[in-house]
Specification:
Layout (H helix, E strand, L loop, with lengths): L6 E5 L3 H12 L3 E5 L11 E4 L4 H7 L2 H7 L1 E3 L1 E5 L5 E6 L10 E5 H15 L2 E3 L4 E7 L2 E6 L4 E4 L1 E4 L6 H7 L6 E13 L8 E7 L2 E7 L4 E9 L11 H9 L7 H6 L7 E7 L7 E2 L2 E3 L2 H4 L8 H18 L3 H31 L5 H12 L4
Parallel strand pairs: 1-2, 1-12, 2-8, 5-14, 12-19
Antiparallel strand pairs: 3-7, 4-7, 5-6, 9-10, 10-11, 13-16, 13-17, 14-15, 15-16, 18-19
Helix pairs in contact: 1-4, 1-9, 2-9, 9-10, 10-11
This protein binds flavin-adenine dinucleotide.
The site of flavin-adenine dinucleotide has 32 residues, from helix 1, strand 3, strand 13, helix 8 and helix 9.
Organism: Bacillus yunxiaonensis
Keywords: Monooxygenase, Oxidoreductase
InterPro entries: FAD-bd (IPR002938), FAD-dep_Monooxygenase_BioMet (IPR050493), FAD/NAD-bd_sf (IPR036188)
């Protein structure tokens, strides 16, 4: 970037925002990240890093650390509700010689990203929630909820599915689209004798349970189940509700019955997506990750797509004389790929809701599509 960009401000210190900070700082830019939460631990259970994300993790310089802190999975095994195996899909869909999908606690991944960003000189400000921004000829003025202000040359929004940067940029509030399912996620412990290194997926009609090991003794599980758009999941009775769902399965579901403690945190959210028809940029402002293309989680590609956005954005900013053409090229390179993954994810949800056959075909189509470089 030959144009005078000195200060970059990133809103959102999640996976995408921290990745963008690392990639831009490596290119010599001064980068501040403002994150509304008060600590560096990403909320949630585990995250699955598929083989197509390994290249971008290497670019960020955190590949080895992610593998060391994570647990590598050879395959995805799909079972019916009685525990009979239906199919097995290899997680080495790009390279037989590389490890399969890496499963890692979100808090571990966050720790790795924060440490890397800070070692490069990225300034991270916690408890900083963007309230509004205004653009002027030479930059962007940002105001936070605590009424403090910052100025920057370009503003990057990696502020998630309910992105404020996106809504201000587009001049309208985007309401994420509900996809008909609810998702529960929670940590579980395994008895040592049950150690395994595959993702286990159990199907019962439109409901499915996933069990993911993150070490030999612990992991996390998730449930995807149809719910109504106005569904409210009461926290006080969540454990009992999860156990009731799990009771309708046999086979590996005993891992949850034995391994979920009453005191474990259980997260619930509605499954939603954001499909934008507009550009992901306007003047000095650009967005990426879930802010631009949040997808249903069932292909586990959201974080990988956010990191790819971050790397490509940094590359294009470095390659162009003007931020505006850099943003255009970034959008052009990313739009189709992110949209394709999003479409496959929502198609998978649709099939599961309608109890149609063919989920495996969609997973394989996604693997095949993502085998080409980003
Ligand atoms: C149930 C579920 C399971 C998933 N499992 C996987 C998986 O296994 N693998 C995978 O690749 N993906 C998975 N995903 C998707 C993945 O979590 C997201 O795609 C990814 O986190 C997107 O990264 P992001 O940085 O764009 O957004 P986020 O991770 O949402 O980060 C946005 C950040 O911005 C902050 N923020 C928001 N508003 C403001 C503001 N106004 N000011 C300052 N900060 C703000 C938030 O606090 C947050 O830290 C899953 C998603 C869900 C819902």
């Amino acid at each position: 970037m030959k144009q005078q960009i000195k200060k970059v401000l990133i809103i959102g210190g999640g996976i995408g925002g921290l990745s963008a900070a690392i990639a831009l700082r490596k290119n010599g830019l001064s980068v501040t990240v403002c994150e509304s939460s008060s600590s560096n631990s990403l909320k949630g259970a585990g995250i699955l890093q598929p083989q197509n994300s390994f290249g971008v993790l290497k670019e960020l310089g955190i590949y080895e650390q992610c593998l060391n802190k994570g647990f590598q999975l050879n395959s995805l095994k799909i079972f019916d509700k009685d525990g009979m195996i239906i199919s097995e899909i290899s997680e080495r869909f790009m390279d037989e010689n590389l490890p399969g999908r890496n499963a890692i606690w979100r808090s571990e991944l966050s720790g790795i990203l924060v440490a890397k960003a800070q070692s490069l000189g990225v300034n991270i400000e916690w408890n900083k929630t963007l309230k509004s921004y205004t653009e002027h000829e030479y930059g962007v003025n940002v105001t936070f909820e605590d009424e403090s202000t910052l100025t920057c040359d370009i503003l990057i929004g990696f502020d998630g599915i309910r992105s404020k940067v996106r809504d201000i940029m587009l001049g309208r509030k985007i309401h994420p689209q509900f996809l008909g399912m609810g998702s529960w996620r929670f940590p579980i412990e395994f008895p040592k004798s049950k150690s395994f290194n595959e993702t286990l997926m159990l199907h019962n009609g439109s409901t499915k349970i996933g069990i993911v090991p993150l070490s030999e003794s612990a992991g996390y599980a998730f449930i995807l189940k149809p719910v109504k758009i106005d569904y409210w999941d009461d926290k006080m009775t969540r454990y009992e509700r999860v156990m009731n769902i799990v009771d309708q399965f046999r086979g590996a579901s005993t891992l949850i019955k034995e391994g979920l403690s009453k005191d474990s945190p259980i997260l619930f959210n509605l499954v939603e997506e954001v499909v934008l028809e507009e550009n992901w940029y306007s003047n000095r402002v650009v967005i990426g990750g879930d802010a631009a293309h949040a997808s249903a989680p069932n292909l586990a590609q959201g974080a990988a797509m956010a990191i790819e956005d971050a790397i490509v954005l940094a590359e294009e900013i470095d390659n162009h004389d003007y931020f505006y053409t850099a943003f255009q090229s970034y959008f052009k390179r990313r739009y189709y790929r992110a949209q394709k993954v999003q479409k496959l994810s929502s198609e998978l949800i649709r099939k599961e809701l309608l109890r149609e056959e063919g989920s495996e075909k969609i997973i394989m189509a996604c693997h095949s599509f993502l085998s080409t470089a980003y």
